Amino acid sequence: MILANVRGRLRAQDFRLVALALARGDAVRREHYERLLLEQGPDRVLDERGLLEALLVLRSLVVPSPALFAYVAVRHTLLSAGVDDRELADYLAALVLEFGDHDRHSRIGRADDQTYHYLVDMVGELTGVDDTGERGFLLRVHLGNYSLWLAGLFPDYVEARRSRQGGPDLPYYDELGRQGYRLASEHRLAERFGVAEIYRAAAQRFPTLRVAFNRLSDRVFFPHVSTPEKILRNL
């Protein structure tokens, strides 16, 4: 299962790159950020205003690791949306990394044989599984994760499918995603794995998170794609 562990994957070279990016070629500024890292810890520097922009324009032989870029991109996008929750940002960065790996987004676990491409299929299976069992828990989590992944990072795909095939709209994903996280937060295994509070926060803020992910998609992942829906989102 996905855990909030991206910050824990960061290494010394990641923080050296952060200082380098923020310094923008100024040796005095680089020394300042390296000192901040030592004195106040990585969270202080990872939250530094302008870090995402600095990583995006970095011109160096060294590039950000996937973990560093994912965490900074998600954390700063959420901060811009008024969501100051490091654990939630850490979890959602892990979600982006995990679901970006091949077809992981369609499975409740890496080794699971069943694939899901429609929310209604997950909801349907939830009615027939043991509420207290592990599969029921993972299905609830996946309902939240998949809703945010698809409607958050691929809103144009959702809108195109709605207009051409009569598929569900973004508020539909908001509602089912919120329900998935809420039900997952109430499951006994959520407390056991220490993720209940993260799921509760995601459920409470789901529409805000989805809109924040729309901005992340537009700005970072698909900056050169232009659609009528994207233009309307950014008015």
Brief digest:
The chain has 235 residues and is mostly helical. The protein has helices at residues 6-9, 12-23, 27-40, 42-46, 51-56, 66-80, 86-99, 119-126, 134-153, 155-165, 170-185, 188-192, 196-204, 206-221, 228-233.
Helix-strand category: mainly alpha
- Large-scale geometry: globular
Uncertain stretches? none
Gyration radius, to the nearest Å?
19 Å
Question: Largest sheet, described in full?
Answer: none
What is the CA–CA distance across the termini?
A: 37 Å
| Helix-residue proportion | 55-70%
Order of helices and strands: HHHHHHHHHHHHHHH
Proportion of strand residues: under 5%
Number of E strands: 0
Describe the structure.
The chain is 69% helix and 0% strand. The chain has 235 residues and is mostly helical. It has 2 domains: 1-99, no CATH class; 107-235, no CATH class. The model has no long low-confidence stretch (mean pLDDT 92).
Describe the protein's topology.
Layout: H1 6-9, H2 12-23, H3 27-40, H4 42-46, H5 51-56, H6 66-80, H7 86-99, H8 119-126, H9 134-153, H10 155-165, H11 170-185, H12 188-192, H13 196-204, H14 206-221, H15 228-233
Helix pairs in contact: 2-3, 6-7, 6-14, 8-9, 9-10, 9-11, 9-14, 11-13
